[in-house]
Amino acid sequence: MDLLRSLPIGLYLEQPVTWMHHLDSRVKMFWLTSFLIAPLLANPYCRLGLSSLLILITLSARIPWRVWRQQMGWLLMLACFVFLITAIAPDGMAIDHQVRLPPEPQELTLPQPSDYRYVIWSGKAFTMISLTITRRSIDLAVRISTTLFTLVYSSSLFLLTTAPEEITAGLESLIKPLRRLNVPVTEILLTLTLSLRFIPLVLEEVQNLARSIRTRAINWKKLGLNRSLQIWLMVAEKLLENLLLRAEQIASAMTVRGFTSPNEHKVEWHQLRIRWCDWLALASLLVFWGVRLTWGWKI
Fold it and tell me: Where in the cell is it found (predicted)?
């Protein structure tokens, strides 16, 4: 399962067990929803604060360096790259201002009341490319880069510290009132759990097929485009066939164990318990939203 271990997003960290692992999955879902909603209509300082808060949470949890590098390192580089590209890109305010009044004499010219400048920097890069950084481009760069980092990394951190069974149990507890509307809650959550458990099987099949092609040492340049496409179509067909076979084996295993209907078999995903640390996290969430609603609005 080398391919699964090398993936930087969506992995569950079993060891070491951090303080985030002990939190109830429902509390972590509330925090995740808050991180997804808080950037809306927020000022740049609030967006930077959200990104900094995620980094502080990661450092306080003492997540190992190897996981930190995979989970956050590449995402920080991507966010910085997006920031630089957006900062030097045109800001969409291509308006030329024309003075309506004739210029005043030099002795009657009044000094500017402040040192405000819309254009922060303007010059040429590599002696050929003309670049201009404005206040609006900086605002757009902060908005895009922080939103990208906050949305992706908050979800990744949630999956990193929450087992699939805990996610399923938390969702079942939150959407349980929908059963009054005849919504098949258990069937939906069973499908979600099987999907989460099926992902490693998909990655394993992809890895096995990739290794089988690598061991044959195929010279792709001599094959040409048409024959290369035929080989990849055969690989895709074999992958689909293997996945359907795995799905049939899982269905047969559930049938043999007597799982025919959720109404007849009670599914225990995970035992949920609210502890003192969960109440502390909920209180911190109230403080978080108090600060956000007070000082976090866009100016």
Answer: Membrane
SS3 42: strand
Q: Are the C-beta atoms of residues 277 and 19 closer than 8 Å to each other? A: yes
Check whether the bond before 16 is cis (ω within 30° of 0): yes
Number of H helices, E strands in the chain: 10, 2
Which region, left, alpha or beta, applies to residue 121 given φ > 0 means left and ψ of -120 to 50 means alpha? beta
Give residues with Cβ within 8 angstroms of 62, minimum separation 6: 16, 18
pTM of the predicted model, to two decimals? 0.75
Helix (H, G, I), strand (E, B) or coil at 51: helix
Any idea what DSSP says for residue 262? T
- Planar angle of CA 283, 288, 294, nearest 5 degrees: 125
CA dihedral 56, 60, 64, 67 (to 10 degrees): -40
For residue range 240-274, what is the model confidence (pLDDT) as tens digits? Answer: 888 888 888 888 887 777 776 665 655 666 677 88
Q: DSSP per residue over 118-139, as a string?
A: SEEEEEEETTTEEEEEEHHHHH
Residue 69 DSSP one-character state: I
Dist CA 295 CA 249 (whole Å): 55
Identity of residue 18: T
Tell me the residue length of the chain: 299
Return d(Cα 138, Cα 124) in angstroms, integer: 18
